[in-house]
Structures are given as structure tokens and as C-alpha cells.
Amino acid sequence: MEIMPTPTYTLIDSVTLASSASSVTFSSLDTIAAGYRDLVLVVTGTASTNTFYRFRFNSDSTNTNYTYVQMIGTGTDALSAAVNDANAGSLTTAESNSLIQIMDFAQTDKHKSYLYRNNFTSVRAAAGRWSNTAAITSIQLAINTGTFNAGSTLSIYGIAA
Amino acid sequence: MGMQLIETIEVGAGGAASIEFTSIPQDGVDLVLKVSTRCSSTAVLLEMQFNADTSASYAYRWLRGTGSATSSGNAGSGYPSTYAMIGWVNGSSATANTFNNQEAYIPNYSGSAIKSFSSDAVDENNATASYQTIQAGGWNNTSAITSVKLFLNAGNFAQYSTASLYKITAD
Questions:
Q1: What is the pTM (predicted TM-score) of this model?
Q2: What is the pairing mode between strands A153-159 and A87-91?
Q3: How far B110 CA sits from the closest chain A CA (Å)?
């Protein structure tokens, strides 16, 4: 009997902005992403200024509930730092992208961890944690300064276990 | 639906100067490239071009950790902007049978915006040299990507090097 691979990397939702926006929210993940183990967010586009955006899992806007460690290559220097913030990636006025993995988003027995890499005015990879055991039912990406420009695309995929 | 294999290319006996995916279907959203490579000579860089574009239209930055040191560089600073660099590659002096791996993500490849990409890679040689790298950059072109070419800064891909191209679809 041929064993077929489990479909994965399934698009759950995608937003291409018709006009600029300061945030984008994917909600009802407990419904539309039910059955998937992990989530992948892909952000591609531009912003009105060089800036970054933050996670708001389940509308939690307390930045100190999030921590991450990052490494950055500026093109000339290599840096690393641990930061108490909800940073989820960066955008510039030129086209750039972020690839964000959120593991075990629906589990209720662990804090939620995530990995991302993105290009900005530098290349960056980070590993972070949201200090909450609740299942993630909504994800907002909220820009720090300025807006996501029209035409930017934010997509969320489900990864099957 | 989801992530679908477009094609896997394995290098045969005698090696190959390049690996190229052509006529990439345009019904996907993003591309994922997974590569296992080794070089037949002393090459160290894995390079990528879209749509056979050899002009100076690629920009990228990289960050590398060796286990004891870190460094960073970018196109235009000792690295040409005529290709996108997506990782380091084991050369012929590396321990036999050691290959290294890269994964590149190319969002909105069939769209009309300027294209961006990111990649991560590992290059390990029996604990005598280990590189972990990330790269990110862009191709200053709004054309849909219809072909992806991989090549090295010198020499050929060794036999058994493989590259697989996947598309992420919206259905």
C-alpha cells in the first residue's frame, strides 16, 4: 500500500493590503487552524518607514510577556542580544520579508515558542517565547512606527504534525 | 494543496556546473528550495540567479557563525551583486561524504513586486569546520520567477548533490 504524505504548509489565511494598515490580525485560529500543530507566517512587502512589528497573541499587548534572543548581521558586524519584547520582524521601505514559525500554537501545557528570520537593513534570526500556556487563537502583527504599505502580503500556513 | 514538490534534481557522475529549474509553474504563492551540496573543487559559495538574470541586480546580507567566531558581509562588499548568495559549500578537501544543506524561501515568486528571499544553511566538515549561516536579500526585478539557477563560485557540484524545489499553493 502506498502511504501518501500528509498535506502540510496549507494556506489558512492570506491578506494583501488594499490600503496601508498599522496592524493585521488573524483570528479564530482555534477554528480555521484546528488540527495543525505549528503555524508559519510569511510577511512580504514594504512599510512607510524602516520599522518593526510586534506579536499580539490573543490580544496580549504586554511586551514584557515576550522574550527573544536574536543574532544580526549588518553586512559588516555580527551581533547577538536577548531582548524582553514582542518583536516579530522588520520591514523597510524597500521590499523585504519575514518567515516566522510558531510551534505548538494550540497546546495548553507550554509557553509558546517561535523562530523567525527576516531581512531588514540587516539579516536577522531570532528565537522567542510568549510566557503563556493558553492556546493561541489570534495573532495580530502590530507595526511599531508607520504602517504596512498597500500591496504588502501577510499569509499564515498550517503545518501538520 | 499545500507544499508540493515541483522537481528534484540529483547530480550524476562527473558532476555538474549548475543546477537549474526551468518552466516553474506560476500557480503557487511561494517557493521553497532545499539543497544538499558538495563541490568537486575548492568552491565555498552557493549562488542563485533568477530568470537567467546575470546583471548586478541582487542585494543580500549574510551572517555566519563558526562555533568560535561570527562575521557578516553583504553584496558589494567583496561579494558580487550579480547573484544571490545563499550559503557555503563543502569543497573537495572536506571529509568524504560530507554534504551541506541550505534552505531558501522565496515569497510571492509569481507576483509583480520586487522579489525578496531568505535562507539558512549549515556546512559541517567532521568538526574541523562548521558554519551556520543565514542570508537574506532581494532581486531588484518585478518579473515573475520562471527559473532558478544554482551554481558555485568555482568548480562543479559533486555527484549526489541534490536540489528540490517546492511550491506553496493557496488552495
A1: 0.91
A2: unpaired
A3: 13
